[in-house]
Amino acid sequence: MKNFIIVILSTFFIGCSYISGPNGLFPDNSDDFFKEDLSEDLITDDNEISKDDHYPVFAVGEFQKEAIETPKPRQIFSSSESKEVQLRRLGELLWVYVEALPSTTWPITKSFLETSEYDLVNFNPEIGTFLVNYDDEVEMKVIIEHGIKESSTEIFLQFFDANDSPLQEPIWITRSQAELEKLVEYIAESVDSFSGTSLAAQSLNDKKKAVIFNLDDQTVIELNLGFNRAWSAVLRALNNGEIFITDRDREEGYFLVSFDVKANQSSWFSFLNFASDDNAVALKGKSDYKIILKTIDNKTSISAENLNEVDGSTEALLSKINELLS
Predict the structure, then answer these.
(1) What is the distance between the alpha carbons of residues 215 and 174, in angstroms, rounded to a whole number?
(2) How high is the mean pLDDT of the chain?
(3) What is the total count of domains within the chain?
(4) From CA 245, how far away is CA 321, in angstroms rounded?
(5) 288, 283, 287: which is closest to 309 by C-alpha?
(6) Which residues form the domain of 232?
(7) Which of 42, 86, 135, 304 has an alpha carbon 20 to 30 Å from 220's alpha carbon atom?
(8) What is the pLDDT of residues 242-267, one digit of tens each?
(9) What phi and psi, each to the nearest 5 degrees, are found at residue 264?
(10) Strands of the 210-214 sheet, one edge to the other
(11) Do 318 and 222 have their domain in common?
(12) Do 188 and 236 belong to one domain?
């Protein structure tokens, strides 16, 4: 029995060394890096190597002398469960505002035109246009664009005569309003229950009218809009937020506002709205920031200046405005 046990143990240890020993099937190679040899340095032409270091490491005492042009990340804001649909007007300009992506609004609008009394001639989902025979001498063009707000759509309507000249008389503005009111009613009934989306119109989702970026270490919002619409959008955002307008000058293109950054920062109890009415009255009486609008080539930039060096930053103010733009 003793000899048998010795034979069994010997066989076991021999088997283990055969499997995991230095000469076994699975040898331990954790120390193999000691056996590696370094190759000679690779000699190349520096001009052929592309250097793109977005995160340089600076030694003690060094600092970044040149600004690194890195775009700000696109701000994403949560939307409510209900999708708002409105008919909006600014002077003689009328449009439909929908809180849904253009790729979602496109098939609903297409269904509305196909079931209408008018003849749908053609459509182009890549540029967001429908062409309809309004009558024998007039054509109606429906234009779908991405709105200012994230995940929103704006729908415009234009009438053209037989010579492709736009019809801008008051009667056609009245007819535009009537047709857009029908469209608003149709979309409002369909947008919450409609689950489809158009793959052909996906490119419209990327053509946003609002971009936020850094320029000379200053946060700027750029709207792909003329001054009138940009001014109206900023005014609506200020009125919808807790941003008090103390003065404004449309000709010069600026608002003077008061804004409590700390009060508007997210907190556990912000939804309870414990803000003091006395504090709100005090804010209305002072000007902390100047919001400046400048329009060049039908694009309007929105920036802000800190007037009183109050706590907070202009970036927080512009972020709040950007969230409320629509």
Answers:
(1) 43
(2) 80
(3) 2
(4) 13
(5) 288
(6) 209-266+275-324
(7) 86
(8) 789 999 999 999 999 988 766 665 44
(9) -95, 0
(10) 210-214, 219-223, 299-306, 289-296, 254-258, 244-249
(11) yes
(12) no
Residue in the structure block whose two tokens are 């001014």: 231
219/188 same-domain check: no
CA dihedral 258, 260, 261, 267 (to 10 degrees): -150
**149 lies in the same domain as 214:** no
Per the rule left: phi > 0, alpha: psi between -120 and 50, beta: everything else, 253 is: left
Domain match, 109 and 156 both: yes
Output the pLDDT for position 245. 92
Does pLDDT of 77 surpass 80? no
Q: Which residue has the tokens 């779908």?
A: 144
In a domain, 238, yes or no: yes
Residue of 86 and 47 predicted with greater confidence? 86
Q: CA quadruple 86, 127, 209, 75: dihedral positive or negative?
A: positive
pTM of the model: 0.68
- Could you tell me which of 260, 232, 253 has the C-alpha nearest to residue 324? 232
pLDDT in tens, 165-178: 999 899 999 999 99
Q: Do 98 and 197 lie in a common domain?
A: yes
Quick one: tokens of 56?
Answer: 């340089």
Question: Any idea what the CATH number is for the domain that residue 311 is in?
Answer: 3.30.310.170
